[in-house]
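Question: Send over one sample?
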Amino acid sequence: MPKATETTLEINLNALTHNFTYLKSKLQPGVKLMGVVKAFAYGSDSVVIAKKLEQLKIDYLAVAYASEGVVLRDAGIKSPILVLHPQTVNFNKIVDRCLEPGIYSPLMLKRFIAFAESLNLQDYPIHIKINTGMNRIGFAPEEASSITEILKQTTAVKVKSIFSHLAASEDVANKAFAERQIKLFQKTSDDLISELGYAPLRHTLNTSGILNFPEAQFDMVRSGIGLYGFGNDANENKNLEPVASLKTIISQIHHIKKGESVGYNFGFIAPKDSVTATLPLGHADGIHRGYGKGKGFVTIKGEKAPMIGNICMDMLMVDITDIDCNEGDEVLVFGKSTTAEEFAETINSISYEVITAISQRVKRIVID
């Protein structure tokens, strides 16, 4: 691994390959894998990740919004792409780039069919989202018959998949709730397939679902956070490798006398003669203002350096009193040895928030 000379996010495609292979090993024969690359591929680089997943023969990709799919298509990505949360204003972009919308309401279904018919499209692939208890977006199960009634009146679209989303697949205490969701999805999708007269793909498992509910893999599963190295479980995390490592350097070292302050609004008052390091990394780069004042730490020369004072827009300070280091030395914020999950826990956050928050101004370095 190259030594950091500025703030960088290393994207390790070897780790991605490892995670992909591990998750594939959990699947029954014939079950497809959808790779979720929304939110800049969980804060890394959606194009880089998608191209690698194509090399690995991913079956499907998924993004949250049409604009994310446009970026992938414009970069040459050929795999089928599900848009999980499309907006009606983006139907033109979706069809123009051969993206596949997740349809989640009667109004959206009618509007997309009207749009497809206006272009004389035939069998354009759509995906039907069923709300089985998450209560974010999706058709209510009792709307299944009305869905098929609408679909039977057109040849402009064809259902490519039926899917849902588990609300707490990682939570053992709520296993019964997930099982009820799976049972409801099974019945609702069975009813839809019976009425449609053909069998679209079915998928409801996310990363935690893949690991905890192997009996509900249906035709395809979706993985987002698992591909990036987190299994929402301490034991499963050992089987995965973080793809992203955030590194920076020491810009300047200060010798602070007892009683002196550091940073904005006297956020740190030295309790004794201390040594601090200033790092070129701040909340504009994705480091939450909840860090600092003793919450959170970075790693320098294998030692923990606690964050002190208030996090600035472009800088933060750490206590290096007991660490033998120099200006220009590399600093690990999170990666393999100190994971984003561990980093997040210090402010009661989660790995998802930490990795997706990394600003686009942070330089990306790809390791393959």
The mean pLDDT is 96.
